[in-house]
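A note from the maintainers: we've had questions about how concatenated examples are separated. There is no special marker in the raw files; a new sequence line simply starts the next protein. For clarity in this README we add a label.
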Amino acid sequence: MSKFSALALSATLALFASCSTFTWRGQASDSGMADPSRGLKDMATLSSEYETEKFFAGIRRRMDGRSNAFSRDLDSITATIDRHLFNYSVDDPYVNFPTEYGPIDNTLRSAVKTVAPLPVTQDLMRR
């Protein structure tokens, strides 16, 4: 046995001897299958929790599938109407070019363009 392996063995034994919490608790036959003090649950509780989680996961999966399919169908209908009635395509880069204006700016600009030619506005501007 070399000096290094003897040193490693003695260090390991010293480590185990100095550790006060080194026990075989839970490894013996006196520990029950369900020990609530250590956070262990019995098989019936675990099975019930698993079935509950599985049931609600299935509901969430089916609901997501339905809503995704419904959204896809609505998007397809909207895209069809846009393409055939308004000659608009979402993928057209010349229509959907990036702009520095946001939706509020666009709404306000549209409102000004709509209100400016009205006779009431023209009267107010002349006074």
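[label: protein 2]
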Amino acid sequence: MEKTDYDVVIIGGGPAGLAAGLFAARARLNVVLLERLMPGGQLATTDWIENYPGFPEGLSGPDLVMKMTEQAKRFNIPIESKEVQSMDLSGPIKKIGLDDGSITAKAVIIATGASPKKLGVPGEDQFYGKGVSFCGTCDAPFYRDLVVAAVGGGDTAVKRNEWGFIVTDQHCGTSIPGVFAAGDVRDTPLRQVVTAVGDGALAAVEAEHYIENMK
């Protein structure tokens, strides 16, 4: 088989991408993580997290991002601040176009996360994470016994192709062999840090198995 620059390219540096990088690196795969901004995704702008196991007192989103990033760097996972411009995933060699060239890989893990749909009202950005929330499962306990205004009635468990989420099987595999999706970007009934991390781990393990079975 033609030689590639990497075994696995991970696109996105949120919890799913960082977990995928950790598991891929520990499996001794040649991996790179691409993040156009800074590691963490939505987690980096989350004020407080109290439902992530292992932190009984809770911690801020930036603090959790820092711990995850430090752990990734401990395993020498290269995190490059580059934006993906194009992808050719049709063949066994995946080609990823960047703003300064292109790279190739045997497998790709898409962990680009999701962005909340905003109302566009004054104060929405100013008070994000400080009274304005986009996740009832995440933040509802913070507002117990308080008056809350809920806007919208959608259920992300059913928001599939028409909402832009990637449909995967139970192994985080997409319809394209060698391409996996993890975290909030995929069609999943729960979007939490803990589920994103689990997705990233599973996607990395499945990518490893895929590469092992390539001819």
